[in-house]
Amino acid sequence: MRYGLKLSQQAPIDEYRAVWRIADDAGFDHVWNMDHFATIGADPSGDIFDAWTLLAAMAETTTRVRIGCMVSGNTYRHPGVLAKQAVTVDHLSGGRLEFGLGAAWAEYEHTMFGLRFGTAGERLDRLEEACQIVRSLWTQERTTFAGQHYTLDDAVAEPKPVQSPYPPIWIGGTGRKRTLRITALYADVWNATGDSSPDEFAELSGVLDAHCADVGRDPGQIRRTVQLRLRDRPDDVLADVDSYARAGADDVVLITRAGTAEAQAAAAAELLPRLRDIG
Fold first, then answer.
1. Half-sphere exposure (Cβ direction) of 87: Cα atoms closer than 13 Å
2. Is the peptide bond before 159 cis (omega within 30 degrees of 0)?
């Protein structure tokens, strides 16, 4: 089992830095932010910083923990731009980037900036094209691509990532027909939210296995991960993690709350040796 910490929104910069340092010093495997332009929840007007600028800061603030965004909304940036940002962070961190990507779902953010939202099917089509483009830009000398949504003409993308062949690709989502099939085709890691119960997590993992069989992929090549909100009682945290470990989770990302994130991260760090005994 591997463990990460996440602080996503409505926090001042110093609180982000504190969580990143705790994750680095305490021995967590990874640390995360999220990618939105407005806060999610009832009020969209709270404070939230740009994900990839924060990742560059995470790269410089930490020395050993792996860093990532859980997950980048593909519709927010052209995949060529995103691939360049990711390579930059991979170099800044000395090859510690975990690359999270999803189809995006927050229609409000698209409306306020005039970004095309489209149907769920269109966004998944764009996600699949983006996976192909990013992998090609990271591995090939030149990339030419003619899809329904993106076109690249003899595109140059240098330097390549520090990690070979490229940073691990995490795809987040629980769509049984398309998202998990795209995961089977292109991802190294699948991430589910804690909204899925352990039983549903196990069932979805089985759907992913079936897609892997369909596309000729070894399902053991894809790690299974879940995000869980930190609870106040250590025994509750241990019980939550154990239930997902029994359902097949390989990684757990523990979500901290703005305002109490530093204290929560410190408590999670104290609990980490017991978490390591699970699984």
1. 20
2. yes
- Measured over the CA atoms of residue 221, residue 269, residue 48 and residue 229, the dihedral's sign is positive
Q: What is the pTM of this model?
A: 0.96
Residue linked to tokens 């990690």: 163
Q: Three-state SS string across 60-102, please?
A: HHCCCCEEEECCEEHHHCCHHHHHHHHHHHHHHCCCCEEEEEE
pLDDT tens digits, 25-68: 999 999 999 999 999 998 999 999 999 999 999 999 999 999 99
Strand partners, 228: 254
Task: Give bridge partners of residue 69 from the DSSP assignment.
Answer: 33
What is the rounded distance in angstroms from the CA atom of residue 46 to the CA atom of residue 34?
14
